[in-house]
Amino acid sequence: MSHTPNRQDFDHYMAPNYAPQQVIPVRGEGSRLWDQQGREYIDFAGGIAVNSLGHCHPVLVDALKDQGEKLWHLSNVFTNEPALNLAKALVDRTFADKVFLCSSGGEANEAALKLARRWAVDNHGEHKDKIISFYQSFHGRTFFTVSVGGQPKYSQGFGPVPGGILHADYNDLESVRKLVGDDTCAIMVEPMQGEGGIVPGTQDFLQGLRDLCDEHNALLIFDEVQTGVGRSGELYAYKNYGITPDILTSAKSLGGGFPVGAMLATDAVAKSLVIGTHGSTYGGNALASAVALAAVEFIDTPEVLEGVKKRHDLFREHLETINRKYGVFKEIRGMGLLMGAQMSDAYEGRAKDILPLAIEEGLMALIAGPNVLRMAPSLVIPEADIAEGMARLERAIERLVAAT
């Protein structure tokens, strides 16, 4: 007997750790989606910075279909051609010498943190175990990564957290200097905080972290799960700063919607991840690797990356125009097509109230905390969709202001 799922089925069958919107999208093409009733939406959310080429992009669909008729999964008892091709593509395009493939950003960050600790033990001894991260950072949902992340709400209520983790203030180098020492094994940082409010790191701050790591024989880990694979206007955001980490993590846009993650590292660091130290059942999956390779090769072109920068300017212009009319934003910030609009004092904490109004107007957007409206659309979103989406956003904001 057939059954058409509805929103009530979520409450009935699914664990209650999410609170999804009432609409259920069933089809997507490019930067537009349609729900069960056939209503159309423009997508500024991008699956939380995942759908790097929008929905059902032909390049990704072709890669999926082609590999889907050849080989899906082997396990890591064997290697496979798509995984090797993806690893080579990432090494050729970055500072890295070695790649560990996995299934998500949380897995990639877990691997990075374990590798940093293992490298420190191998090279300096067990006393060198401190990890410095930043308040308001977000690095995943495993117990290690939520503990390193700087938002206690994600780790509270699950018992004692792992030790040796310290937190400093983002974009405040002096707060890091007070914590760093010869027992520091790594500093983990997002070059732009995502869940923490779309806050780009300053050049001096990130360069200072690099210098402190060099001074104290510690590793610099860049979490580029949200900023990577074209999102910032470069393939990876570290290229915007000219600052090279020792370890980099990648996911989200890497697969264009297919679950895949990667940890990239130099030879000197990666050699500590010897046989048996870490693994991922689905990591290096042939199907995921084939799709990710297609995404990387398509995105890492001047046309796409320059297009991201151009679209950033368009988003900013539209947001500034809306703000001149309604005065709802205090600051518009971000890099590339990961942008945040912080609410003004008069609308403090009201970013979340925009989302249901936007849905009613036919627009999907995000928040980054209660006070920042976040947008992470397709890297190739048509300019006409930007204009129409912003018109829908303006109508939602007009309704918010009118109801205040």
Salient structural properties:
single chain, 404 residues, alpha/beta, Aspartate Aminotransferase, domain 1, Aspartate Aminotransferase, domain 2, 2 domains, 14 helices, 39% helix, globular
Descriptive account of the structure:
The protein has 404 residues and is of the alpha/beta class. It has two domains: 7-56 and 302-402, Alpha-Beta Complex (Aspartate Aminotransferase, domain 1), CATH 3.90.1150.10; 71-299, 3-Layer(aba) Sandwich (Aspartate Aminotransferase, domain 2), CATH 3.40.640. The protein has helices spanning 7-13, 46-49, 58-68, 81-93, 105-124, 143-148, 173-177, 203-215, 238-241, 267-270, 286-299, 302-326, 351-361, 383-402, and strands at residues 25-29, 32-35, 40-43, 98-102, 130-134, 165-168, 184-189, 192-193, 199-200, 219-223, 247-250, 261-265, 329-335, 338-343, 363-364, 366-367, 372-375. A hairpin with a 5-residue loop joins strand 8 (192-193) and strand 9. Helix content is 39%, strand content 18%. The longest helix is centred in the C-terminal third of the chain and has 25 residues, at 302-326.
